[in-house]
Structure formats: C-alpha cells, structure tokens
Amino acid sequence: MKLSKNFTLDELIVTSTSGSNIPPGIHKEKLLYTANYLLQPIRDKWGPVVVNSGYRSQAVNTAIGGSSTSQHCKGEAADIRTPTADLWEVYLWILDNLSFGQCIYEEKGVAKWIHISLPRVDKPNQQALLFKDGKYTNYKEA
C-alpha cells in the first residue's frame, strides 16, 4: 500500500523482531500522515530516507524495550537514516522547516538516526532533543 509518493506501508511496519506488526486502521491513517507530512518532505529535500523503525505493535515495542507511551505504537513516529545526506544537516533542516512533536538526533555507539514524530495534542511540540550516552538533552542547551 502506497502512503506517499516515495513511501509504502511495508517500509513503515518492517521489523526484525518476531511477532505481528500489522497496524489497525486508525494507526494506518496516522502512518499516512507520518509519511506525507514528515518523511516525504525530508525525502524531497535530501534524497533517500531509510526507515529503521516506524509503526511498532505493543508486542514489538515491548520486545525492543521501547517506551510504553511511544508514538511508534500509534503510527505517529519514525526513526530514520539518510544514506546520501549528512544526518546532522538533515536534523537541523527539520528543526527549521517541519512541524513535529519531537525530533531527536540519536547516537548509540557508531549508529546514528533521527527520531521524528507527529505533533501531539497533550504534550509539548517542536521538542528538539539530542540522545547520546543514554542521556537526553535539549538541543538548545547542548
């Protein structure tokens, strides 16, 4: 199922964790928004975008140790890499050009990715964070 010009449902539900990872209808709708309002603009500006983690069923989220309140479980978030563009530059561009709930530049060992989520109704939005050495910091305070 095509969600946007360059993204499919299969790309946003892929997982290497065992267990079902098929989203219910409302979460598919949120994945449509995630693809069109977050991922597609990044793809249009920077080229290929690889989704490391999009939607996560509760079973998959639990298996990887994800937060019980993760927007991934609602189809509202994705962890991405950009194989042909500098990830830090992409992160800074997102902060200046997209509306989001959280945008987190994450590093774990040599792995680097960006977590981006749809805006939220009941929590702060435009939250720009860094995650390194197991610790979150506000981008503006780093």
Q: What's the architecture, going by CATH?
A: 2-Layer Sandwich
Structural class: alpha+beta
- Average pLDDT over all residues: 95
Largest sheet: 6 strands, mixed
Radius of gyration: 14 Å
In what order do the strands lie side by side in the largest sheet?
1-2-4-3-5-6
Shape: globular
Strand content: 15-25%
CATH class: Alpha Beta
Q: Which ranges are low-confidence, i.e. pLDDT below 50, for 5 or more consecutive residues?
A: none
The CATH topology comes to Muramoyl-pentapeptide Carboxypeptidase, domain 2
* Order of secondary-structure elements: HHEHEHEEEE
Helix content: 25-40%
Distance between the amino and carboxyl termini: 40 Å
Query: How many domains, in number, for the residues?
Result: 1
Q: In DSSP terms, counting alpha (H) and pi (I) runs of 4 or more, how many helices?
A: 4
Total beta-strand segments: 6
Give structural notes:
- This protein has one domain: Muramoyl-pentapeptide Carboxypeptidase, domain 2 (2-Layer Sandwich).
- The chain contains four helices and six strands, in the order H-H-E-H-E-H-E-E-E-E.
- The chain has helices spanning 9-13, 25-46, 58-64, 87-97, and strands at 50-53, 77-81, 102-108, 111-117, 127-132, 135-138.
- The longest helix has 22 residues, at 25-46.
